[in-house]
Amino acid sequence: MTTIIESREKLLSVRIQPVRMGNTREFYYEPDEVEQLSTAVVTAIAKAHDEDVIDQKWLISNDINTDALDGLFQEHNLKMTLQFEADTTTATIIADPSGDPIIKIESHR
User: Fold this and answer.
1) Residue 14 CA to its chain's centroid (Å)
2) Residues 88-104: pLDDT tens digits?
């Protein structure tokens, strides 16, 4: 589901939000409770690039330890933020008010 929203507060009710900022497109993606964080990052980057997850040339395992990533937000740490560069994007993972991860993708394509 793709939805444009006006404020960050409304973000929690949608899965992905595209926003244009110059040459950078910004997306927010909120993974399902059962979705592994590494899978959610791959999905968010694919959506940011208007690609199918299966058709992506970028492999997360080439850049990131997926087991470590999947374990980061399991304790619902409210003060955790993680940022990294991947496939011409800047990925930032932050905790929402409940400690669940929200993925922000800045696509530089």
Assistant:
1) 13
2) 889 999 988 888 899 99
According to the model, what pLDDT value does residue 72 have? 83
Cα–Cα distances (Å) from 23 to 44, 45, 89, in that order, read: 18, 16, 12
7-57 tens-digit pLDDT = 344 443 334 445 555 577 888 999 988 899 999 999 999 988 888 988 888
Tokens at 72, concatenated: 């980061």
Q: Which residue has the tokens 């040339």?
A: 57
Three-class SS of residue 44?
helix
Instruction: Give Rg (Cα) of the chain.
Output: 13
What is this structure's pTM?
0.74
* Cα distances (angstroms) measured from residue 50 to each of 22, 75, 88: 18, 32, 13
Which residues have CB under 8 Å from 24's CB, separation 6+?
Answer: 106, 107, 108
**Backbone phi and psi for residue 9, each to the nearest 5 degrees, phi listed first:** -60, -35
